[in-house]
Sequence to fold (524 residues):
Amino acid sequence: MPEDQQEILEFLKQNRSDGPADVDRVIETHGAVVFLHTGEALKIKRAIRYDYLDFSTLELRKAMLERELELNKDAAPELYRDVVAITREGDGSLAFDGFGPVVEWVLRMDRFPDDAELSVMADLGVIDARVAEALGRSLAGYHRKAPKSELGGAELIGDIVDELDRVLGGMTAELGGDCISRFIASAREVLNRQSRLLDDRTRLGWVRRCHGDLHLHNIIMWNGQPTPFDALEFDERLGTCDILYDLAFLLMDLDHRRLPAIANRVLNSYLYHGKEDEHLEGLAALPLYLAIRAAIRAMVDIQTADFQSNRPALIGDAHIFMDQAIAYLDPPRPVLVAIGGLSGTGKTTLAHRIAPILGAFPGAIHLRSDLERKAQFDVEPNIKLPPEAYHRDVTDLVYVALREKARRALGAGHAVILDAVHGDVSERTLAQTIAEDLGCAFCGIWLDAGIETRVQRVDGRALDASDADVTVARQQELTSVGPITWHRVESDGELETLAANVLQRIMADSGAMRTSNPEELPPD
Fold:
């Protein structure tokens, strides 16, 4: 922190905006300092300048705080209050909004509980499937409202790669020159290959003024909903990006914290609630987006180390980020896994369990007939549909839609799980044909379970997209499914045993997993 802000620091440690009070905690980043008092958070910008950021003057710091307030008011209106001045009074003391000249500007916010921050929730192990799915839904809505931009997607990403090349090039002492050069070379190669797609994303309206800094530290549970805050304010160009690039920061952060199953749930929820099949083709850019986000975090770690005492830890963390960045740019090949079986055999439970480990991070796109049927009727997943929604012609449309989405995602290089009964031979054949047409690996899994197990499972469902009940489960016992050529697997037992068994079959058929050991399942 430059010398001319030291007095401001001491003042904010000892004062809330309404009077003297000792600070509870101080949070320091490479660009800002936040003072957490009881019921109030006060934030100032550091008087610094980087290649990509300039807070070096009082006027610039005020403008950036006001822009931060503007960007975050819609998403978190009860969190952000206003921008206030710190003034120099006649007796030489400092005051909030006094009568003397302004010496600093402060963003004033309500203070949220520490454990409301998703980074803290991750550390505590309390981000579960419910939170992950709510997060995907919330961010899909956030991006839907974001203003569109005409800036070219390939040019925007190219500028960031150029910036990383320049800045990381000055960090070889901390990161080593080899990993930096490997990352830059791979990133440029992938960018060249995907440039048309990135520009198409602009044409389709998916390059927008986004959050720009969407990691777990910048999302809180507010009024029971995941809420982004602290959007990137200092550079409109950096804050303008493909919405999938915005999402990639969060997914990468979850991976860094070893939460791949949560990342997979977030992505699948985001795609479902985003309701745009164009994003499935956009997944082809996701490895590049993830890699750039990881490299940016490595860069920021090195820069932040200059202000903090735990420099060795931050440098070690930066190395992990660079390893992530390089790995993302060499993803496993895609695989189509079709899971069939009667209601209650555990298709969806199994799909959730194995999806994070299949193909490119964060795992397989989980396409579920129950959710697709609800989407066809434009109702929430837990709303029960009338019997006519299960007529044969409707079911045929559901399977057609599932297969088309599978083609799009597989064509983008992403693994897919097709989760549906697949009770007809033709449905199983058509699923396998997708993989054959695209030249990717296929693994068909047919789950078998006894009638009492199936009845118990469907009877125990709550707030689930499936409308199958005990009557449906018993009726299915009388229905012929024809010859089964897929791997038949008993699913009456424990999930972990089932998942390991199925992953062994997938490994034998495709090898499209991010580990050679099918027992290395991510935490659920």
